[in-house]
Amino acid sequence: MQFDTVHSETDGRGVCTVWLNRPDKHNAMSEQMIAELSALSTDLRESAVRVVVLVACSPSFCAGGDLKWMQAQMRR
Question: What are the boundaries of each domain within the chain?
């Protein structure tokens, strides 16, 4: 499955590397990223993956929650 905000690759040993890919937002969690991580997690449960390594595609690992997204949630 292909995602926009996360990318993954699994090697022959069963090690899956997952990259957070929102460098412009310091990899802050958005609704889309959370949904994609959840879908990826479901996919990985049914695979031969033994280890998941979570990394970032930028110098910032993860800034936490995307503030604009959280503010929009409060207005709902």
Answer: 6-75
